[in-house]
Amino acid sequence: MNVLVLGGTYFIGRVLVELLIGKHTVFTLNRGTREPSENVSLIVADRRNYSEVKNGLQGRNFDVVIDLSGYNEDDVAIVLDSLDGRFGQYIFCSSIAVCSQPPVCWPITEDHSKCSSVVESEYGYNKWLAEQCLSRYSQKNNLPISVVRPVYVYGPYDQSRRMDYFFERISEGHPIIMSGTGENLVQFGYVYDLCKAIIAIIGNEAAYGQAFNISGRELVTINQLIDLVSSVIAMKADFRFNASSQEEASALTSKHRFADIGKAEKVLGIIPETSLSDGIKTTHEWWLINRRRK
């Protein structure tokens, strides 16, 4: 299959392309700020520049489009208009943030009510508008659309530095600064497990027109997460909650953030393979080689 990955250079995109190579003919569309992997065809375009995307995609046909860098309705609309139906399936990476939080009841399912305005979540609301744009296009043109909604994603190449923050602060002897009390429940999914779920959607008719929550199975409190990271890297953590400090704080929420992933397991037949402790260990090993400040 000819597979176009929108945003195939960083983190999720980098891992996804790595897994697709050798199984499909892979194209990536991005600004060309980094050299693509071997055996990948690069289409250089800023996806927010209509003329660049239009010119880059002109005359091209794809069996599957996997969109990892669409953050709002305009991002998606530019691609749909430029391709003009010359694709067989569109897989969109959204976020659990599209759901109103806190929900009426936990855990969050795919059917929970969605953000109604930027007041609830600017990021989540714009992702939801992008999903709706795709849904309208799918219904009008009878082309299959599938959506994945990760919770928190972590692993090698993560530019958000979710785990890097803990590794750096603990190894350098600095306190971890958190908001809240540390008792809120959160859910993490390893990047390779997310990418394998996306690949399971390719050409899968059972996934057409469906949205799937994707994450790991384990739930942990922030306190437990910090203890787990400390245990994995064998160093004690000093952490402070609601501390008044000018030091860098973790970007993790002080609220609950977890979802029901049962639909993905049932429909796609995929089960997260990586435990949180194993994923943190592998991510830390990668960080030691690639990111640790000398």
Descriptive key words:
single chain; alpha/beta; UDP-galactose 4-epimerase, domain 1; 2 domains; seven-stranded parallel sheet; three-stranded mixed sheet; 19% strand
* The CATH fourth-level homologous superfamily of the largest domain: NAD(P)-binding Rossmann-like Domain
Just name the CATH architecture of the largest domain. Answer: 3-Layer(aba) Sandwich
Report the helical percentage.
25-40%
Widest sheet: strand ordering = 3-2-1-4-5-6-10
Q: Which class of the largest domain in CATH terms? A: Alpha Beta
Which series of helices and strands comes N to C? EHEEHEHEHEEHEEHEEHEHH
Q: What gap, in angstroms, lies between the N and C termini?
A: 43 Å
Overall pLDDT level: 94
Number of domains: 2
Radius of gyration: 19 Å
CATH topology (level 3) name of the largest domain: Rossmann fold
Structural class: alpha/beta
Number of helices: 9
Taking pLDDT < 50 over at least 5 consecutive residues as the criterion, the unreliable ranges are none
Taking the sheet with the most strands, its summary is: 7 strands, parallel
Shape descriptor reads globular
Report strand %: 15-25%
Total strands: the figure is 12
